[in-house]
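Morning, I've got a small favour to ask if you have a moment. I'm working through a protein record and want to make sense of it properly. The fold is given in discrete form, as structure tokens running alongside the sequence. Can you walk me through what the tokens say about the fold? Thanks so much in advance, here it is:
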Amino acid sequence: MCFYDEKNKTLQDPWNVSDVQSVRSDLNEDQACDVLDHVADNFDANIGINWDVIWFSASALFPEPLEDATDA
């Protein structure tokens, strides 16, 4: 997933909408973009970007609905 961009002399680690939706399939494309924006705005180089960061960001922005106990 990670690659070195020789032209820009940078290390790239791209994440996209489908990555977000693989963690939270209930999110639409706009919501997944909001999650990516949130991850970028709160980036911590000591942690980096990983599946947990994606999930926590998605949950912070779009809490998963609690299952109704009567549905069980």
About this structure: The mean pLDDT is 91. Residues 15-63 form one domain. The helical segments are 17-23, 29-41, 51-61.
